[in-house]
Design goal:
The complex is a heterodimer of chains A (737) and B (83). Chain A has 737 residues and is mainly alpha-helical. Chain A is 61% helix and 6% strand. Classes of the chains: A mainly alpha (737), B alpha+beta (83). The complex binds guanosine-5'-triphosphate and magnesium ion (MG).
Chain lengths: 737, 83
């Protein structure tokens, strides 16, 4: 799956495979830590849209766009966030490989201005790698709010590269950035850092030796010194990449193995000598250099200074006389120093407001992650956001109106009548406007049923994402998730799975171990219903609270049970949890709307062809008699779990997509064909089905064919088995719903 | 340094043992697992940085310089703080 980058001017191929707008133009690549605003900047520069949310690990794939700056056009590339050149998780590896392969005009290293001290180390690594670089200090507004001042021109001078301050979410400073890009001419900026960043006599000789070993190796995008450092830290990706790149005939496999063996020995020797892992040592060295620079260019308000004992608290009366003006200028421009004193009163007023804002968000934050208060808040979010808005309003009221009034009452009869009179062939009439017809079923389901529900869900979900609630939920649920072999990080793909399992399956990349990724994948495929299906089920069962309760309990138990078993069965270490906690942010309406639209757009394109295909297949099946045969086969498990044989087509639809099955169930419920218990059992079975073919394909892509097959081979029988158990239990207990 | 004069030496304890709302300085990181170590240092959790523990439950939440991090007990046990 690839979410479409919505391109301007209708030039885009809407996220189709191989869609690379701007290919062949000079490249600009955005890199930097997670959640610093790379994608926001991408959107601001290119006029396209790629997902922006307030948590680390939003982008897990590379996005391409086109930008026009001045007279020239550029290809602009957004990457998943990475913490350093040495990757730890999969999505970081995606970015690292890109660095090896590409030779762009310039890289924009995006950092969060407030966290310059932490992020500048990566800038040094990039310089060390000899990459053409512009440093973008994003989130200047938040730095300002906390009264952090950065001397941009001095920073630019000491790094030897252009530095620009921006607020990408508000498109401030973008013009300056564009100017800096236009003016950018690649110069050799590595030299400067060769002297500054000396790793000391203990390590430098090793670097040199490896560099000389790399002699015949093919040129890669980054400098030999940087590659040597990576190799010295035993980075697998770098090693593998070099092996692949080296295809020269005269440099055979043996040579390669010999040199990689040699490198490994060197790395071992070096780390033995230093007694701590080399990456640790190297990072500390770099940080020393960073501290030197930061000390010169960055001033923090008193009270947040190091060692003051009150980090994070801002002194109220620390107003300084030499306040700088808002200063989003690029390095080349004149710096406006010491702003006029006349606005001082206004400024103090503003400071108070900013401090108030920070205090308020602090208070809210404390409730969200409170071990006791956090849980009721979660239930409130679920109740209002999911149940009331998605389940009752969208899947109930809106769908009822669209399905029964608009489509059932006007559109479908009209289209059917028109079609019948225009096309007199019964076979074709059946294909387009019959019971399972392309128009009367596929299009109607997609527009009247799926779209409003999915839209409502994604709307709520976007708001939740943009506030920064998801990482807080991770923190809250980490302890519980550990019991099923997952860390709190997995909360994010799981919640995303309620929107669409296919999207969520890609996002499992952000999990650190293979074991976690597989468990998450199984649970996504099995126990997390996607929004369309969930909405329909909520709406069908909402008339009967007990059914809804039993359904939730069964699904939750299943989630826990399978997670628990999987964590027992699968080999590997227990997961650990580290997550950066972004500040709570006010969601921006424009971002929420575009994001919701872009996801709906993608979802619609994803479901409609499949629904149409299903209609066509059923039509062919009916003509050839195969449809009846398939129904006959599925009747067995259907009857087995206590449903009438008629319900078989619901499950047949379910094999295409489980939301399609749910839509079928909606139809049966509408015509009152099922009892309460039957409805419940059908809903449970269908919830546990594989999500859809797209999700299956994605699982193959991310986990491999065997794993994907094993997962689906387990899920279908297991879904029916659970239905069987629930049905018989209910019967045994004499429950009537 | 907060305790420089009142004590002979600084206390060095793990983040787990630290009291909430106290600020100290990261002394060192200790872990056998290179992946965890790599992650911590890449994320900017480095010796010498000031650190404030904000909460211990449901998970550990702390602030280093300007950034907040959530970690589990396992990881918190690897971070040694002096104050
Ligand atoms: N206040 C403020 N918020 C910003 C700014 N730029 C981006 N944001 C917000 O920061 C969050 C992260 O932005 P993204 O663009 O998704 O960050 P990213 O770097 O692409 O993140 P990953 O894809 O996870 O690596 C979003 O909530 C943005 O709205 C800025 O300049 N100021
Ligand atoms: Mg992004």
């Amino acid at each position: 799956m690839k979410l479409p980058v919505i391109c301007p001017e209708k030039e885009c191929c809407c996220g189709k495979k191989g869609c690379t707008p701007g290919e062949g133009l000079p490249k600009i690549i955005l890199i930097g830590n997670p959640n610093v605003g790379k994608s926001s900047l991408f959107n601001a520069l290119s006029g396209s849209y790629t997902l922006v949310s307030n948590y680390p690990g939003t982008s897990v794939e590379i996005a391409h766009g086109k930008a026009r700056i001045g007279e020239r056009e550029y290809e602009i590339i957004d990457t998943p966030g990475m913490y350093s050149l040495l990757p730890v998780s999969e999505e970081e590896r995606v970015s690292q490989l890109l660095l090896f392969e590409e030779k762009p005009l310039v890289y924009l290293h995006v950092v969060d201005a407030r966290n310059l001290r932490r992020m500048l180390s990566f800038t040094l690594q990039l310089l060390e790698a000899g990459l053409p670089l512009i440093l973008v200090l994003n989130m200047m507004d938040e730095a300002e709010e906390r009264r952090i001042e950065i001397d941009i021109s001095e920073l630019s001078q000491s790094l030897g590269i252009p530095v620009v301050g921006t607020v990408s979410s508000e498109e401030k400073g973008i013009d300056e950035l564009k100017a800096a890009i236009s003016e950018y001419t690649s110069r050799n900026n590595t030299q400067k850092f060769r002297q500054k960043l000396d790793y000391g006599t203990e390590i430098e000789p090793y670097i040199e030796t490896i560099e000389s070993l790399l002699g015949p190796a093919k040129e890669v995008g980054i400098s030999k010194r940087a590659i040597s450092l990576l190799l010295l830290q035993e980075d697998q990706t770098a090693l593998e990449y070099l092996c692949k790149a080296e295809k020269k005939p005269e440099c055979g496999r043996e040579d390669l193995e010999k040199s990689s063996e040699e490198i490994r020995k060197l790395a071992e020797a070096a780390s033995k000598k230093s007694e701590v892992p080399l990456s640790y040592l190297l990072t500390l060295k770099r940080q020393e250099c960073v501290n030197g620079i930061v000390g010169q260019v960055m001033t923090m308000p008193e009270g947040t200074e190091k060692n003051s004992g009150k980090a994070g608290k801002i002194g109220t009366e620390a107003e300084k006389g030499t306040e700088k003006e808002e200063n989003y200028t690029c390095a080349a421009q004149e710096k406006t120093k010491s702003g006029p004193a006349k606005n001082r009163a206004g400024k103090i007023e503003e400071r108070k407001k900013q401090k108030g804002n920070i205090d308020l968000s602090e208070k809210i934050d404390n409730i969200l992650i409170h071990p006791v208060l956090g849980i009721p808040v979660l239930f409130l979010v679920l109740y209002f956001g999911l149940y009331l808005f998605v389940g009752v309003f969208a899947a109930g009221t809106v769908v009822d109106f669209l399905e029964n009034t608009v489509f059932g009452g006007y559109v479908n009869p009209l289209v059917t009548a028109k079609f019948m009179s225009l096309v007199p062939y019964p076979a074709l009439q059946d294909l387009f406007v019959g019971e399972y017809g392309i128009f009367t079923q596929a299009v109607t389901y997609a527009i009247a049923l799926i779209l409003p529900i999915v839209g409502a869900f994604f709307l709520v979900f976007s708001i939740i994402e943009d506030t920064g609630y998801l990482p807080r939920l991770s923190l809250l649920l980490d302890g519980m998730f550990k019991k099923i072999g997952l860390s709190g990080r997995a909360v994010i793909p799981m919640v995303l799975g309620f929107g669409c399992s296919t999207m969520a399956t890609v996002v499992t990349r952000t999990l650190e171990t293979k074991r976690e990724r597989i468990i998450a994948n199984i649970l996504l495929a099995l126990a997390i219903p996607c929004s369309a299906q969930l909405g329909i089920i909520l709406s069908i069962l909402s008339g009967n609270p007990e059914s809804l309760l039993i359904w939730s309990i069964v699904i939750i138990l299943e989630f826990i049970l399978i997670g628990f078993l999987a964590s027992r069965v699968l080999p590997g270490e227990a997961p650990t949890f580290i997550l950066e906690m972004p500040p709570l942010r006010k969601p921006k309406l424009s971002n929420i709307l575009v994001k919701t639209y872009s996801r709906m757009h993608w979802y619609f394109l994803e479901v409609l062809p499949l629904f149409v295909l299903a209609s066509v297949l059923i039509w062919i099946g009916k003509l050839t008699g195969l449809f009846a045969l398939a129904l006959k086969i599925i009747e067995y498990p259907t009857v087995w779990i206590g449903l009438p044989p008629d319900a078989a087509d619901v499950f047949l639809f379910g094999f295409f997509r489980r939301d399609f099955g749910a839509a079928g169930l909606y139809g049966m419920h509408d015509s009152g064909l099922l009892t309460g218990v039957q409805l419940l059992v059908a809903a449970i079975t269908l919830t546990l089905f594989m999500p859809c073919i797209a999700q299956f394909m994605m699982t193959i892509k991310e986990r491999g064919f065997k794993t994907a097959l094993a997962i689906s081979g387990f899920i279908f029988p297991f879904a029916f088995f659970t239905g069987f158990i629930v049905n018989n239990l209910l019967k045994l207990l004499g429950v009537n719903l | 340094m907060v305790n420089k004069n009142s004590r002979l030496a600084l206390k060095t304890i793990t983040l787990c043992a630290m009291e909430p709302k106290k600020t100290g300085k990261i002394d060192h990181l200790e872990t056998k697992n290179p992946g965890i170590l790599q992650k911590l240092i890449a994320m900017g959790i480095l010796p010498g940085m000031p650190i404030t523990l904000l909460r211990r439950s449901p998970s550990y939440l702390f602030e280093v310089d300007q950034t907040r991090y959530a970690v589990d007990r396992e990881i918190a046990n690897h971070i040694y703080v002096s104050y």
